[in-house]
Amino acid sequence: MTAIPFPSPPADTAAVTALRSEFRGFLAEQLKDRTPRQRSDNWYGFDRGFSRAMGQAGYLGMTWPKQYGGHERSAFERYVVVEESLAAGAPVGAHWIADRQSGPSIIKYGTQAQKDLLLPQIAAGQAAFCIGMSEPDSGSDLAATRTRAIRDGDNYRITGTKLWTSFAHEADWVILFCRTGSGGPAERQAGTSQFLVDLKNTPGLTIRPIIDLAGQHHFNEMHFEDAIVPADMLLGAEGQGWEQVMSELAFERSGPERFLSSIELLKQLIAVLAARDSDFAQITLGRVTARLAVLRRLSRSVTAMLHDKADAGLQAAIVKDVGALFEQALPDIARELVDAEPDPRAAAAYAGVLGNIVLNAPSWSLRGGTREILRGIIARGLGVR
Predict the structure, then answer these.
(1) Could you give the residue numbers annotated as active site?
(2) Which tens digits make up the pLDDT trace of 283-306?
(3) Which of 13, 61, 259, 300 is the most buried (most CB within 10 A)?
(4) For residue 375, how many other CB atoms are within 10 A of its CB?
C-alpha cells in the first residue's frame, strides 16, 4: 500500500492574520441583515450585488496577475477569504465557481484573448460561471461523457445534455466538457475537450430547471441541440480536455466548502446547548470540533500543494469525501442532542436551519464527485486497485 502525503501547511503570517480581521469587518457590514436561515445556504446563495462588492474590495482573483484584475496575493490569503465567507454564511454563488476554478483554468489554458475578455470580469464580480461536466446516466464518471462537439468551419456544433449544473439559469458562462474525438465513449479519457460557452448568447442551448427536495432551484439541465460555439472559445488544446478537467477538479474538491456547508447548524447547536449542563453534549461537541480541526488542516495542506503547483488531485479527493461525511453527519448529531422538529419555514433559528440542512445534505455526497468515484480514485492512489 502506498502512503498519501499531506504536507504541513505553513503558519499564518502577519498579513494573513490582518486580512482575517479586515475581512470579518467587511462581512459584518455586508451581511448584517442576513438571517441564520439565509446564512445556512452559504454557497447556495446567489447575490450579484454582494459579488460585485467583493470584487470592488479586492477579494476576488486574489492570487491572479494584476494585469487581469488580480491582486497577486498568496493562496493562504485567498483561503482566509473563502473560509470566512462560508463561516459567515455569505451568498457567494454569483462568483464562487468563477473565482475558485474557472478563472484558474482560463489562466492556465486560455488564449490571450480569452484571458483579456473574462478574467477582469471575474475579478470584478461581474461574470458568473457554472460547471458543465455531469451528464444523465454517467454522473461523476466524466470519462463516459457523450456530449459531442464537431468542428464546422469557424465554429463547433455541440449536441448533448449536461445535468445538475448549479446556477446555469443565473450564470453568464459555462466551461463545457465534451467529446471532440472521432470515437465514442469507449475512448474514455481520450478525445475530450473543453469550451467556454456564453449562456446568454448561444443558439441551440436550452436550460431547464430542476427543483430539489427543499423546493429550491439551484440545479438545471442544459440541453445542446446543434448549438453553435465559436472555435476561438475552445479552452486549451483540442483532445486535452481530460487533463484540463482533472486540474480543475483539484480546485473544486479541496477547499473549506467541503466541510463548512453545514457550519451554521453547528453554530446554532452550540448556542442552544450553551445553557444546558450535559456531559454527553460537551463530549459530542468536542469530538465534532476535533473532526473539524482535522479537516481544516487537510484542506490547508492541499492549498499548500496548489500554491506550490503540485498535483493535489488525490489529496483533494480525500478532503472532499471525508468532508462530505462530516457535513452529512451533523444533522443527525444535532437531532441526538436537541429534541426539535426540523422546519425550514420555522421562525426559530435552530429549527429553521436544521430543516434547511436536513433537506440539502443528501446532495453533498454527489456534488464535486460521488463517493463511489472518489473512493475509486483514492484506492488507486493507495495502490490497492
Answers:
(1) 252
(2) 999 999 999 999 999 999 998 988
(3) 61
(4) 15
